[in-house]
Amino acid sequence: MVELDFQIPSAIDPFAEAKDSSGTKAKVHIRVQQRNGKKCLTTVQGLPKDFSYERILKDVKKDFCCNGNVVNDKELGKVIQLQGDQRKNVQAFLLRSNLATKDQIQIHGF
C-alpha cells in the first residue's frame, strides 16, 4: 500500500461572517426617504441589539438639532428615524462614537 501525504479539507461555512454573534460584521444601513416636497426622513437600521437605541437617538437629536423616534418593525427590528437628510451626519456620529466602523456603514439614497 502507498501512503499519500495530503489532508482532506474540513467543511467551510461560507456564511460564517454573516452569522457572527458579536454583531461586528453586520451592516448598518442609513437611508433617506422622500416625504412631501422637500421634506426627507433618514432611517438607521442594523445596529446591534445590545445598544440602547433611545440613548443613541437622544445624542443624535442633540448633536444635529433635529427630531426623531425609534420605531419597532416586525421584519427589521428597531429602526431610528430622523427628520431631514442626516446621512453624512449619522455616519460621522457612528464613527466618532465607535458604534460602527467605516466598512460596516452602508449609505443608501439619492
Q: Could you characterize what this model shows?
A:
It comes from Linum tenue. Keywords: Protein biosynthesis, Translation regulation. With 110 residues, the protein is an alpha+beta fold. It is 20% helix and 26% strand. The protein contains two helices and five strands; from the N terminus they run E-E-H-E-E-H-E. The protein has helices at 53-64, 87-96; strands at 28-34, 40-45, 68-73, 77-83, 105-107. A hairpin with a 5-residue loop joins strand 1 (28-34) and strand 2. The chain starts with 27 loop residues before the first strand and ends with a strand. The model is unreliable at 13-24 (pLDDT under 50).
H/E series, N to C? Answer: EEHEEHE
What fraction of residues sit in β-strands? 25-35%
Strand tally: 5
Helix content: 10-25%
Radius of gyration: 20 Å
- Low-pLDDT regions: 13-24
User: Strands across the major sheet, in which order?
Assistant: 3-4-2-1-5
For the largest beta-sheet, the strand count, sense and barrel status come to: 5 strands, mixed
Oligomerization state of this entry? single chain
Average of per-residue pLDDT values: 83
Number of helices: 2
Q: Shape, please?
A: elongated
What is the distance, rounded to the nearest whole angstrom, between the alpha carbons of the first and last residues? 67 Å
Protein name: SUI1 domain-containing protein
GO biological process, one term: regulation of translation
GO molecular function: mRNA binding; translation initiation factor activity
Domain SUI1: 28-98
